[in-house]
Design a protein that fits this description.
By secondary structure, the protein is mostly helical. The protein is 76% helix and 6% strand. It has a three-stranded antiparallel beta sheet. Helix 10 packs antiparallel against helix 17, helix 11 crosses helix 12 and helix 15 runs antiparallel to helix 16.
């Protein structure tokens, strides 16, 4: 609970200052009244205000994975839950997690179940983790569930790291190439304008040079306007993509981008299969598991297909049938799911599908990046060559070399 600092007046007229730990200001007033003190000023203590500033912030996934793993080890060693939370809160180096764990510990001490205490902090603990913790509490295998959450969180972070790492170098090429071309257009091309003007007067200016000069003049004279138009377009596009229609359009586009769309789709479906399999393996009902796992795809098109599958399952049908009908899931994965449903081992097979798809996607991603890097270098080289030709052709013409 937060700390409040107060200024009050005693019956004797003496002014009294101090600190009180309470849930609300009303509780502080009640406590002061019981001590025959008249409150003059009540406000959150500095430490409590600092904690308030930390609330609502997110916690790094790797810090959460460490927390889940350590809590699992403590519970497995026979340490009571309340004592385990207290130990982890005290030793946590993450300030946000430290504040959150203190509140979780207080709620558990008041008789709240761990899953419900975690639910009070949706910015920190995912719906997946909360559902699995609830299943672990109900099935008396909380230690195993926490270890699985830790392993799953670590795995997802490794996957994210590999994808981001693969995209860093191509993005670096785009940024550096763009800066080089912009510098040439703004500072280098104008140096040749006297020559270009003489050739233009004689009608001897090559079309490549005309294009380069036009782009250079636009950037030099209307650079701020161009930046403003681009920024405005990006802003309105961002606002549109926040709408349901825009998000659907964007997500559908992500799935159809040549090369990258296949990678994006495979990773999203693998994430869905892994989360669904993990939830089912921990006793979460299939309809609730589908509700959680569909959001894990991060794509409204795929989420819509999974949502329709939930309606089919509610009507007593299988999962594979609506997934196949949607056309958004690989036929191979749907066939395996259909066989698994008949064999009644869907939870295990889903995790196997996720691992298989991730391995194939890693190989495809590595190949795609290897081909993308020289392709981007070639594009940048061609753009620079075009600019250089636009500059050199008139110079050569004016020197009677051509």
């Amino acid at each position: 609970m937060p700390e409040f600092q107060y200024t009050a007046r005693a019956m004797s007229g003496q002014e009294v200052k101090g600190l009180l730990t309470a849930g609300t200001e009303t509780e502080v007033v009640s406590t002061l009244s019981s001590r025959e003190l008249f409150p003059l000023k009540i406000e959150l203590a500095e430490s409590a205000r600092a904690d308030d500033r930390l609330r609502g912030r997110r916690v790094k996934a790797r810090d959460l994975a460490t927390f889940y793993a350590q809590l699992s080890d403590l519970l497995r060693s026979g340490v009571p839950l309340l004592r385990s939370l207290e130990l982890l809160q005290r030793q946590s180096r993450n300030k946000v997690l430290k504040v959150v764990l203190q509140e979780v510990r207080d709620e558990v001490a008041d008789g709240t179940r761990l899953a419900e205490a975690l639910r009070q902090h949706p910015n920190v603990f995912s719906e997946l983790a909360i559902s699995m913790v609830r299943a672990g509490e109900e099935g008396s295998f909380l230690e195993d569930v926490l270890r699985r959450i830790a392993d799953f969180t670590e795995h997802q972070e490794d996957l994210k790291g590999r994808v981001v790492g693969a995209a860093v170098y191509p993005m670096f090429l785009v940024v550096v190439g763009g800066l080089v071309l912009t510098f040439m257009m703004i500072w280098f091309v104008p140096k040749f304008e006297p020559i270009f003007q003489r050739l233009e007067a004689r009608g001897e200016l090559p079309w490549a040079t005309t294009a380069v000069v036009g782009i250079s003049d636009t950037l030099t004279n209307y650079g701020l306007a161009v930046v403003g138009v681009v920024a405005a377009a990006a802003f309105f596009a961002g606002q549109y993509f926040k709408t349901d229609e825009g998000r659907m359009t964007l997500d559908r586009g992500k799935l159809t981008v040549p090369g990258a769309g296949k990678i994006y789709r495979s990773l999203a479906i693998a994430r869905f299969c892994r989360i669904l399999g993990t939830l089912l393996n921990n006793g979460v009902p299939i309809l609730n598991s589908l509700r959680i796992s569909k959001d894990a795809t991060g794509n409204k098109v795929l989420s819509g297909a999974i949502n329709e599958a939930s309606d089919f399952i509610s009507a007593g049908k299988t999962l594979a049938e609506p997934l196949r009908a949607s056309g958004e899931f690989p036929e191979e994965a749907v066939e395996i799911i259909a066989v698994a449903e008949e064999a009644n081992n869907l939870e295990k097979v889903l995790v196997d599908i996720a691992e298989s798809m991730e391995r194939r996607t890693y190989r495809y991603l590595e190949l795609f990046v290897r081909l993308l890097e020289p392709a981007m270098l070639l594009v940048m080289a061609m753009l620079v060559l075009f600019v250089m030709l636009g500059l050199l052709l008139p110079v050569l013409q004016s020197s009677n070399v051509l």
